[in-house]
Amino acid sequence: MIAHLSGRLFSKEPNRLVIDVNGVGYEVTIPLSTFYEIGEIGSPIQLLVHTYVREDALMLFGFKTPQERQLFEQLTSVSGIGPKLGIGILSGMSVSELVPAIRQSNLARLTTIPGVGKKTAERLVVDLRDKVARIEVGPAGSQSPPATRSAQEEDVISALINLGYPKPQADKALQKALMQMGDFHSFEDLLRNSLQQLAK
Which pTM does this prediction carry? Predict the structure, then answer.
């Protein structure tokens, strides 16, 4: 089982990247919280990995921090939550936001995450409220690689749609984020702010 990868960043998208390890490219699915923390293409990268094995699939899920991987493994232990939804939950809310929401039984906050309805939120609270108490949480940081304005906006809309938001809702959130942030911002910051608009 692969538990850790260290190499160079070959390519990256908001929920997926490829790590070149001695000439072998490993495709890794990641949450947005990890995407915010990785560097530029070609830069060194180290990720903690959860290997998901089924008869018809072998998938790698990567995380920047032990807390992310631990919470992902706890999320996917809940009935009805597979790895795809687990990544979606971590993309919709950071560890430092998600852990308190589960511990405080904040169903209204949890159901703002795409793919999480009331029943799923209730299962998260019942199954994980005590378990997540052992996860240390802190504020998340971000890095800010530059991008061109028009391509950047298209990428943000695409990322929001891939996360499960309808296009009109994504457009509206992006416009609110742009009004709030002005002209100078990174893709990561714009995506983060758009998600914050959607959570309101």
Answer: 0.68
